[in-house]
Structures are given as structure tokens and as C-alpha cells.
Amino acid sequence: MTDKVKVIIINDQKDVKIPKGLRMLIRRCCTATLMVENFKGCVEVSVRLVDNDEIRRLNKEYRNIDNDTDVLSFPLGADGVYDINHETGDQMLGDIVISMPKAVEQAQRFGHDLQREVGYLTVHSMLHMLGYDHESGGIAHLYMREKEEQVLTKLGLKRDGSYYMENL
Q1: Handedness of CA 143, 121, 88, 154 (dihedral sign)
Q2: Helix axes 100-110, 114-129, angle to 10 degrees
Q3: Of 82, 106, 103, 79, which is closest to residue 94 (Cα–Cα)?
Q4: Within a 10 A sphere around the Cβ of 144, how many other Cβ atoms?
Q5: Which residues contact 128 (CB under 8 A, 6 or more apart)?
Q6: What is d(CA 150, CA 120) in angstroms, rounded to the nearest whole number?
Q7: Which residues pair with 94 in a beta bridge?
Q8: pTM (predicted TM-score)
Q9: Which fold has domain 2-154?
Q10: Nearest to 41 by CA among 125, 130, 120, 127
Q11: Distances (CA, A) of 21 to 26, 39, 41, 45
């Protein structure tokens, strides 16, 4: 079991008022993901809440994709080896960047609340930092979705319907 999880949350946007309890939910999502994965040791994760312009800038700079997106993950490790914070000894998993306007838009589109959407984006990003990848599709994509739902269900944020939108 994870010994200690330090989640640093920075709100760098003014478009969306952060609902009461959202920061705690983000911390719970990080911890629950690590617990489901049986991650050992003390960890540090940074979560930055931004607007669409900032996430688009980061997406272009780091992924060469000139579009806004919902979440970006910046892992600080690979194959289970992470950078260490020399002051605390914590493993630094990396940085999560969430577009709050995009989270609001997607929550409305998918018919659930903002908490469920931000919870999903946080868990999704945490799994990326732990080495999961859905970009190649196929079984890896399904396995990552299964892990996401396992964590979200544990947190009481179970998805109501299918993974697929009817109009696609």
C-alpha cells in the first residue's frame, strides 16, 4: 500500500469556479489509483487546473498538436522508476494538467456532473503516469478503460452508461 500521497493542486484559471470538495476529490482519485495498482512508497503528484488557451499551448509545445484537449500527463518516470524529491525522498510521479472549461463541456456532453468528469480525468492521467497507454488502441485501450472504471467505482463515481456515445 502507498505510504503517503502528496498532491499539489494549483488553480491557474479563472473561467470555472472550483466547486467545494473538488480538490479533495482530486486527492482521493490519486490515492485510489495508487491503491488499486498496489503502488508502494511515498509519492508526490502535481495537478494544475488551466483554461483552454493554456492547455492548447502546452499540447502544441510538448506534443506538437495545435488543439485544446481535456487533460495532459507529464510522467517523471518510466518502467516503475521515478524521479526522487531529494528533500522528502518521495517518488515524483509527474504532473497532471486539466482544462477546467473542457471538463465542464465534457461533463455536459456525457450527462454527468463536473466532479465525475474531473475524477475521470485525474484517474486517466494517473494511469498514464503509471505506464498505461490507450493511444495504440486494441487491448491496451480496453485494459486502461477497465482500470479507470475500477478506480472510479471504488470512489463511488461509477459510469452510468456505455463507453460509447450513440451518435458517433
Answers
A1: negative
A2: 120
A3: 82
A4: 17
A5: 73, 75
A6: 11
A7: 45, 75
A8: 0.90
A9: Collagenase (Catalytic Domain) (3.40.390)
A10: 130
A11: 9, 25, 26, 18
Q: Which amino acid is at 71?
A: V
Whole-number Å distance between alpha carbons of 133 and 127:
8
The residues that bridge with 44 in the sheet, in sequence order, are 6, 92
Residue whose grid cell is 483554461:
51
Q: What is the DSSP string of the chain?
A: -EEEEEEEEEE--SSSPPPTTHHHHHHHHHHHHHHHTT--EEEEEEEEEE-HHHHHHHHHHHH---S--SEEEEESEETTEEEE-TTT--EEEEEEEEEHHHHHHHHHHHTS-HHHHHHHHHHHHHHHHTT---TT-HHHHHHHHHHHHHHHHHTT---SS-SS-TT-
Q: Which three cell numbers stand for residue 94?
A: 509527474
Amino acid at 124: H
pLDDT along the chain (168 residues), means of 10: 86 96 97 94 96 97 96 90 91 97 96 94 95 77 89 83 40
